[in-house]
Amino acid sequence: MMLRSRAVVLTAVAVLSLGVGCSKKKVAAVTPAAPQPVAQQPATPATAQPRQEASATPAVPTPAARRTTPDAATRARIEQLLARIEDAYFDYDKHTLRADAIETLRKDSSELRDILKDYPDYKLTIEGHADERGSAEYNMALGQARAEAAKAYLVQVGIPSQQLGLVSYGKEKPACQEQTEDCYQKNRRIHIVANATK
Hints:
The chain has six helices and four strands. The chain is α+β, with helices and mostly antiparallel strands. It has a four-stranded mixed sheet with strand order 1-4-2-3. About 3% of the residues have low confidence.
């Protein structure tokens, strides 16, 4: 009987061992799913502003305001050019430009034109003069006609008309006071000056 009891105990232990072994295998066979990685978002600072979408059209920088009058250096250059453009002279009782008057006006007028077109508010004045012979009224009209002839030529070479003013002094501002033909010739002229700027 002891043998029998022993056999029962051994059988029970073997069964239990098998059962435990089987259950362990079942547990080992079922492995838990690997944890899914969580995408971490970078921490946003509390003061960060939300990003704005880029505009479809790029911003065009506004151009700097253009000067309408020349700076001091350019005005000095204009004065140099005007000083080199000598007075243009006329024949007695005439207002048509002579060949030497045209040559005088032609000198440096291209550079003057190129400067003035960039400064539309900058103006020059063409002064018309006459010698002392004749009445004051007649010489005022003659001086005006001479200034207009010079202006027409300068406009023809490209200086804008609206930048050229006219004034006639007639015989009021002579360059020479002697009563000689040579002196009279010096007074029959036009003279170009730059207007004073503010």
